Amino acid sequence: MNSTELITALQLSPHVEGGYYRRIYTHPCSVAGTDTKGSASSQEQPCRSSQRPLMSSIYYLLGRDRPIGHLHRNRSDILHFFLQGAPLHYTLLWPDGRLQHIILGHRIDQGEQQSLLVPGGVWKASQLVAGEYGLIAEAVCPGFVYEDMTLATHQYIQDNFPQHLAVLSPLIHSG
Fold this sequence. Notes:
Helices cover 10% and strands 42% of the residues. By secondary structure, the chain is mainly β. The longest helix has 7 residues, at 3-9.
């Protein structure tokens, strides 16, 4: 199956951060979004007080036509699970300024990981470097809501992490 067929079969739509997605599950219970304890973002990204689903999950695909999941951070912790296709390269920017590179894929013997936890408040970007597509699933807890997602700007990275601007610039959404 090629990427176009997979996008159609899974009923994926373009995502604001790049790539394609479809929400596949939203837990029917909700939690208050006021607790910041234990989150990497607790000091710089306080949670808003509205309700959040207990958990949500999506399919997410990067393809040749949309190969970048642009640099952004989420309020919630997100578990990423590699499903199929080409490996996806993740760039993480931690609140302390540490930059980390991880590859999600099936070749464990070559250092690829099949799952990745990105704590809330950690900036992340993903890229399809080679191949036709890479497909993952994500589990978000508490569940994803758009108001808890922030796309990075060049100005923010320049002001807060200038040492990484050259590396991160191609991963920042320009529009």
